[in-house]
Amino acid sequence: MIYIADENDSGKRLDVRLTEILTDISRSKIQSKIKSGNITVNKEIQKSSYSLKEDDEIFISEEDGEVVEIQPENIPLDIVWEDNNMAVVNKPSGMLTHPTNLEKSNTLVNALLNKYGDNLSDINGAYRRGIVHRLDRNTSGLLMIAKNNETHEYLKSQIQEHKIEKTYRTIVKGVWKEDESVIDLPIGRNPKQPHKMMVTESGKPAKSIVRVIKRYKDATALEVKIITGRTHQIRVHLSHFGHPIYNDSLYGAGKGKVNTEEQVLQSFGLRFTKPYSDEIISLEIPMDEKYLKVQNYFEGREK
To answer: In the annotation, is 136 catalytic?
Structure first.
């Protein structure tokens, strides 16, 4: 089994992260496997205390049969586009992109396994079959799915080279002044609240382009293009300037008068080059129910 560390794993101890992934194996046994060379990082033996970095390749010997199994589930999928190598799905708000140590059902991966079976990339391990990039649980919208490892690597390289265009729509608290803004501020984990991210000089580069769609009396509808894809990037960048996303309780918005399932944020636009061709695929989806509900509230107040 090969697991590729992502930005969420950065800074975690090797043995601690593997305990979260290999739930049927004790930490002491994992440490023993690391010491014996049955677990390597970038083809080298490391200590259990090794601090993971994004894109580290962890090879885990499966000789003891500790393969993590995620069960297929008959969950409806909204497939927006697909070919033999990949698919683009519209993930609903409230659904996890992939299983975690605590939640192993009702995720997008469970649904993908039911639809595609073994025709999904596996270079990121059993928990992330087919997953090239992710959306937060309460963010809806477009996600690319790789049906094989070659396509996964192709799409991953396109993301790293900023050749894939991802566009979001959101409504934030307060009136955003500039018609168009470029936010180029690094993002890292909040040391006092590890479940949150923050703008920090020690973080990783993060760039968002913000355009005003409509201003209301005390809110603004925005379109945001992300050049990088850091964890919680849009939520952190907008909150940093005093304009948290409507109903985003994690980043300071609190609960607004319109009840929705946390942040009003949708990945509605995706533009990429079809793998192994020069064809440009440009996709857009309509506003989701959550966004429409909040938009209608503010539109009604303007009349």
So the answer is: yes
